[in-house]
Amino acid sequence: MLEYVLRFLIGGFVVSAFAVLGDILRPKSFAGLFGAAPSIALATLLITLLQMGAGYVALEARSMIIGAVALGVYSWTVCVLLKKFMLPSLAATIAACAVWFAVAFGIFRLAGLR
Amino acid sequence: MMMVRINLSALRQTRWHEYAIRFGLGGVMTVTAGVIASVFGPVVGGLFLAFPSIFPASATMIEKHVRERKEKAGLQGARRGKEVAALDATGAVLGSYGLAAFAIMIWALIEKAQLWAFAFASVAWIVVSALAWFARRKLRAHARLHV
Predict the structure, then answer these.
(1) CA–CA separation, A103 vs A107, rounded Å?
(2) What residues of chain B lie within 8 A of the CB of A22, using their CB?
(3) pLDDT tens-digit map of B22-52
(4) CB contact at 8 A, A68 and B100
(5) Which residue of B has its CA nearest to A30?
(6) DSSP strands (E only) in chain B
(7) Cβ–Cβ below 8 Å for B52 and A75
(8) What is the ipTM of this complex?
(9) Alpha carbon of B147: minimum distance to chain A alpha carbons (Å)
(10) Which one, of B48, B54, B65, lies nearest residue A66 by Cα?
(11) What's the pLDDT band for B76 if we cut at 50, 70, 90?
């Protein structure tokens, strides 16, 4: 239980810190870089390193490369839904999650990772 | 040429409950990533380290803040709000290159030098992201000149 409380607090703090950086930086396209910051990854991988060791972290990081590709396609999709289809942000960002899952698990399957 | 700058007054636009939402989402997603890894293993769990967990909240906040600012000035803000949120998403596309660089560095170095791996990966993230952003700006400026 303590582990999950720690994960929650550290994750919340790191994500908030990157989000504040994104709030104060201009232009907005540069601030957007922080929307893809390794906030959850930093918190998770550091805790995992202490608990499970470097081999486990290496496996997570290898899959994270695929997740990052999916995040790029997701962000591009959000951009298109907002600019071309004029969807509200909440609808665009939630609808595009289907793209993240399709790309992430599509590459995952193609790469034959286990 | 417009350069990167800091606008601290933007902090006043964010309300305390918006900070709380992002803190909560970040915390919940970090716990969820841990749970997924422990149930399905690190190979599936690793995918979720790049899941866009707080993106919906951030984009909605950006759109709302821009719309409110425009409407306060007596202007229609709905379209501009979406445009600025789209700009933020464009930045996230470029940031995802940096995120991939971060993951590659951790993968390549973690078993050789644990803490250095995090330091190098963080540097790789910001350098690759910023370079991608500057390269996009240069390309767009070049394209505008030659149209």
Answers:
(1) 6
(2) 58, 88
(3) 999 999 999 999 999 999 999 999 999 999 9
(4) yes
(5) B91
(6) 5-6
(7) yes
(8) 0.94
(9) 22
(10) B48
(11) confident
- Is the pLDDT score of B1 beyond 70? no
Which residues of chain B lie closer than 8 angstroms to A108, CB-CB? 44, 47
The fraction of chain A above a pLDDT of 90, given in percent, is 87
Separation in Å, CA B119 to CA A42, A54, A102:
11, 15, 31
Contact present, A60 and B117 (Cβ < 8 Å): no
User: What value does the mean pLDDT of chain A take?
Assistant: 93
Cα–Cα distance for residue pair B61/B52, rounded to 1 Å: 15
In this prediction, residue B53 has a pLDDT band, given cuts at 50, 70 and 90, of confident
CB pair distance less than 8 Å for A29 and B133: yes
More confident call, B92 vs A3:
B92
Chain pair A-B, CB pairs under 8 angstroms = 316
Is A91:A78 a contact under the CB 8 Å cutoff? no
- Give how far A60 is from chain B: nearest CA, Å: 4
Q: In chain B, which residues have their Cβ closer than 8 Å to the Cβ of A92?
A: 59, 85
Tokens coding B6? 């800091």
Residue among A24, A59, A74 whose CB faces B11 most closely:
A24
pTM, entire model:
0.92
pLDDT at site A23: 87
Q: Do A36 and B95 make contact, defined as CB atoms within 8 angstroms?
A: yes
How many CB atoms sit inside 10 A of residue A98's CB?
11
